[in-house]
């Protein structure tokens, strides 16, 4: 069990990729705290773990608010005494072209995706420095590496997360804290489905048609599963990646292979 007695904090872990990572690490012996803004999903996760093991906690946090992030970190440390692993999965996206996106939408994407990543990394790193140990995994996106229409704000936040992760990897290496980002391609989650819905409206076609079109452009001919991305997160969180820091890992079923 690679995660026995490890304390893992997963932000945005109440659904999709974060939830898959939370469940897998919990199964592998970790003490897991999930922080998310969606209280309904947090409640349903908390109900799954009423076995009395006391090694799971779901809590409501808006990661774009500094005070809430500080309270979250204090809560985790008061319950489990340390934080070994931070996984940043929370994100929002509005699929809008430059000529339509409004300032509030742009600001919200930066507040949650980019500032939220900064706030959690800063607050958690302060704890990790005390123990001279830690692994941080920031979930970026293939859209932070390759251009896609109608995602100027989202893609900019994701490109920002990739370089931010590399910069802090450099700063934190001397404390034995590793920082990596991962860049998933299309992964079958609520967030992806929201994007499919938006495309289907703008293109006047069905969601099924959008799903078929998009999967046919992926060499592996299918979307990723949250559990497959969670496996990469687990590798980067574990001792098995003990000499890897400052890297960005694309996981996309080969989406980046084709030029045209
Ligand atoms: N699904 C994909 O195709 C895909 C592709 C590339 C990257 N990603 C990235 O993977 C990560 C996980 O996304 P997912 O697809 O699992 O989506 P998801 O919507 O299932 O999960 C995102 C979670 O973030 C939470 N969240 C949103 N705003 C928050 C806030 N202010 N504070 C705390 N929590 C908040 C949501 O409630 C949700 O539970 C995101 O960073 C996303 O950008 C996803």
Which helices and strands appear, and what pairs or packs with what?
Blueprint: E1 7-11, H1 16-27, E2 31-36, H2 39-48, E3 56-60, H3 66-80, E4 85-88, H4 103-131, E5 134-139, H5 152-172, E6 177-184, H6 190-203, H7 207-216, H8 226-237, E7 248-251
Parallel strand pairs: 1-2, 1-4, 2-3, 4-5, 5-6, 6-7
Helix pairs in contact: 1-8, 3-4, 4-5, 6-7
This protein binds nicotinamide-adenine-dinucleotide.
CATH homologous superfamily designation: NAD(P)-binding Rossmann-like Domain
Structural class: alpha/beta
Mean pLDDT across residues:
96
> Do you know the CATH architecture?
3-Layer(aba) Sandwich
SS element count, helices: 8
Instruction: Summarize the helix and strand pattern as letters.
Output: EHEHEHEHEHEHHHE
Q: Specify the overall morphology.
A: globular
Unreliable residue stretches: none
Kindly, what is the distance between the CA atoms of the first and last residues, rounded to a whole number of angstroms? 43 Å
E-strand count: 7
Helix content estimate? 40-55%
Strand content: 5-15%
Oligomer: single chain
Biggest sheet, strands in spatial order? 3-2-1-4-5-6-7
Q: Compute the CA-based radius of gyration.
A: 18 Å
Largest sheet: 7 strands, parallel
Summed up, the domain count is 1
CATH class placement: Alpha Beta
Quick structural overview:
The protein has 260 residues and is α/β, with parallel strands linked by helices. It has helices spanning 16-27, 39-48, 66-80, 103-131, 152-172, 190-203, 207-216, 226-237; strands at 7-11, 31-36, 56-60, 85-88, 134-139, 177-184, 248-251. The protein has a single domain, classed as Rossmann fold (3-Layer(aba) Sandwich), CATH 3.40.50.720.
């Amino acid at each position: 069990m690679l995660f026995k007695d490890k304390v893992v904090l997963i932000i945005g872990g109440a659904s999709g990729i974060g939830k898959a990572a939370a469940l897998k690490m919990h199964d592998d012996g970790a003490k897991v705290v999930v922080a998310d803004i969606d209280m309904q999903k947090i409640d349903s996760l908390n109900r799954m773990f009423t076995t009395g093991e006391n090694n799971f906690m779901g809590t409501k946090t808006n990661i774009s608010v500094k005070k809430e992030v500080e309270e979250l970190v204090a809560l985790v440390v008061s319950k489990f005494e340390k934080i070994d692993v931070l996984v940043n999965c929370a994100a929002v996206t509005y699929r809008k072209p430059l000529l339509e996106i409004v300032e509030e939408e742009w600001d919200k994407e930066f507040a949650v995706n980019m500032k939220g990543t900064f706030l959690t990394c800063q607050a958690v790193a302060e704890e990790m420095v005390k123990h001279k140990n830690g692994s941080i995994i920031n979930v970026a996106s293939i859209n932070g590496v390759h251009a896609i229409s109608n995602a100027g704000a989202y893609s900019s936040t994701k490109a920002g997360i990739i370089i931010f992760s590399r910069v802090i990897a450099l700063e934190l290496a001397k404390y034995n804290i590793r920082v990596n980002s991962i860049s998933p391609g299309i992964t079958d989650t609520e967030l992806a489905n929201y994007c499919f819905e938006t495309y289907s409206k703008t293109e006047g076609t069905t969601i099924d048609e959008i799903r078929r079109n998009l999967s046919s452009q992926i060499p592996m001919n299918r979307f990723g599963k949250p559990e497959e991305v969670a496996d990469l997160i687990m590798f980067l969180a574990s001792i098995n990646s003990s000499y890897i820091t400052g890297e960005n890992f694309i996981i996309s079923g080969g989406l980046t292979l084709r030029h045209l």
